[in-house]
Amino acid sequence: MELPVRRAGATDQPLVLGIDFGTSNSAAALIGADGRLQVMPLGEGRAEMPTALFFANETQSVLYGTEAMQAYLAGTEGRLLRSLKSLLGSRLMNEYTAVNGQSLRFYDILVLFFKELKRRCEAQAGQALTHAVLGRPVHFVDDDADRDTQAQATLERAARDAGFTHLSCQLEPIAAALDYEQRVNGETTALVVDIGGGTSDFTVIRLNPARSHLRDRRADILATTGIHLGGTDFDRLLDLSAVMPLLGYKHQGTGGRPVPNSVFFDLATWHLIHQAYTRRALHFAAELRPSYADPVLHQRLMQVLDEQHGHRLLSAVESAKIACSESGQMVPIRLDFLGDGLSASLGAERLQEALQSSVAQVVQCAQACVRAAGKTSADAVYLTGGSSALRPLVDALRLAMPQATLVEGNRFGGVAAGLAHAGAAIGA
Predict the structure, then answer these.
(1) Was domain 16-186+410-427 assigned CATH 3.30.420.40?
(2) Looking at 165-314, which runs of residues are DSSP E strands?
(3) Pairing between strand 52-56 and 78-82?
(4) Out of 56, 173, 215, 223, which could bridge 194 as a Cys pair, Cβ 3.0 to 4.6 Å?
(5) Per-residue pLDDT tens for 161-194?
């Protein structure tokens, strides 16, 4: 739905909220009546909040964002849900799951998250917010136009069911470009690299502050590409490499055959972890016991499943990924809750080795975007998104595009800020 065009001189037009609904984290921003960018602090003073909900058993309450993650990691009895964005465009969105003694569709849980995000933003803005620009990846689903259309329609429907009445969508890398444009002095051609939790998106765009007020920037967009690969995929690969072998992944069992790996892939994938806890999955895992030559590994696997530690393991891997990428040093992954002194580790070599193929795919997609724009290089490569600081990726991009200036932008708030600028231009 098109947002209403603001009349010249009008002062009563509604504020337009830019919403970056992310796989791992979400953020929001708007341009206030005074023309200034207002990034919404969504929890503990931070511009972003984890895209997470925790259904607490004892209190029958729902916690969101950082509070949800803290409750889960503290061992509170309940159910954690993350990476809802990864379900958009899939049949899982309309499936039911048990939380707090009731059965809810994943779609209904998505609406709950949007309602909470809207509530927090309204508390900051001091007024009702009914108009929004939603960010979307270049591809929700690779190579399936129908499912991609369905994913955007589901996202918009959830926002409407949460109380937004006027909606528009903008590609996330274009939104990031509009944010970057506020900081350039003259015309430049930028490759925007937006590495999110579930997707990597790219745009080659001409930027010029003198055109930032224009509603229609289609003439400046030279090319867009995207791939359904991002931070949660990196987490999965690192979890499989560093932690899952301690539960039996790639373990050569009796008869020299490896233990079946489906349970490990579910446990290492944010939006599939809940499937590992179903009665059928637990029975399957228990029946794997004869396949193990080392019974301790199977005992650990069953402990993780019975006590539902999947998110805890993946959170530890995610934290180690960030710390290792920032420092370049070996980082321990403490697993004391599975056994005294048990730990894994993540260093630069493992980071590089485990992610080499995925990083190469991301860089190839970025290079394809530059070629599609009819360029051999961009003036600048602007990095944004929560996973854009991953050191192997940054090094690979620098090597692939040596002529461009590499600019590390606002990892979590850049897309939301760009969506806010897009909303202001639409309203103007």
Answers:
(1) yes
(2) 166-171, 188-195, 200-207, 221-227
(3) antiparallel
(4) 173
(5) 999 999 999 999 889 998 999 889 899 999 999 9
